[in-house]
Every structure is written in C-alpha cells, then in structure tokens.
Specification:
The chain is mainly α. The chain has one domain. The chain contains 6 helices and no strands. The radius of gyration is 16 Å and the shape is globular. The chain binds iron/sulfur cluster. Iron/sulfur cluster (SF4) binds next to helix 2.
Length: 136
C-alpha cells in the first residue's frame, strides 16, 4: 500500500531519526522495557508500577507512531487518546539511557504536549505549576 508519510514540523530536533515519525521505528519490540523491579536499572517506571503493557515504553512508542500516521487532522498531534497514553508516563529518561535502541519516549512526549496545546486549552493545574515555577 502506497501510504504517504505525513511530514511533521517539530520544535524539537528529531533529524537524527529522520523525523519524529521515524524515531519510534527504533523500537525492535524486544520487551526489555518490561523489566520488573529488582532487575536493575529503572526502565520503565510506570510499567514496573502497573505491569500493564500499555504503560511500557514499547506500547507508548508504537501507539504514538500509529496515531500520528493515521490522523487526518491538520494538527496531527491533536489527539485526546494520545494525551491519555502519556498521562501516567514519567519523563525519567530511563528509556533513552537503558533501551538498547535508544527509544526516547520522554522527547516524544515533550513534543507531543507542545503541539497538542497549540489547539487545546492547557489545564489549570499546568498553568498553576508553570506559574509556581516562575515565582519560586
Ligand atoms: S522500547 Fe526499547 S526496550 Fe522497549 S521493546 Fe522497544 S527497543 Fe526494546
């Protein structure tokens, strides 16, 4: 099937992966991000808490790519389901450090939130946190 890959402009630099859509393709599906507590390292803190595949680096990485690829919206990042996928994600950077393929979901999440709030209102909690950080 000749699917045209959307070209997505980003604030972050994903040129090392040939763009933000290709960055998730680094995942080889090995499942090393599903390590249990006691297995050493940190990857992935949210998966270790829930033992649910949806909270693994692998799942978030692949869902991210899938949603952005099939979206028909002008802002392809305008996706509430993807916001929910990232809600329990802790940007520990353990994936970037410990994933053998250097999948970096923290950078994907940061870019996603930046783009998502271009067309959606920021929740009050984020504004309050941002305000608190500026006054401290
Ligand atoms: S995210 Fe990394 S550790 Fe997890 S399955 Fe993909 S390549 Fe393996």
């Amino acid at each position: 099937m000749d699917r045209e890959e959307p070209v997505l402009k980003t604030l972050g630099d994903f040129s090392g992966s040939l763009g933000i859509l290709r960055a998730p393709e680094k995942c080889n599906g090995s499942g090393d991000c599903r390590k249990s507590v006691g297995a050493g390292g940190t990857l992935c803190p949210s998966y270790r808490a829930t033992k649910d595949e949806k909270d693994s680096t692998r799942a978030r990485d692949n869902v991210f790519r899938a949603f952005l690829t099939v979206s028909l919206k002008e802002n392809k990042f305008d996706n509430k389901e993807l916001l929910d996928v990232f809600d329990f994600f802790l940007p520990s950077k353990a994936c970037a450090a410990e994933c053998l393929s250097n999948v970096d979901v923290a950078s994907l999440k940061a870019e996603f939130l930046y783009q998502y709030y271009k067309t959606n209102k920021r929740p009050l909690r984020s504004k309050l946190m941002g305000w608190q950080c500026t006054v401290d």
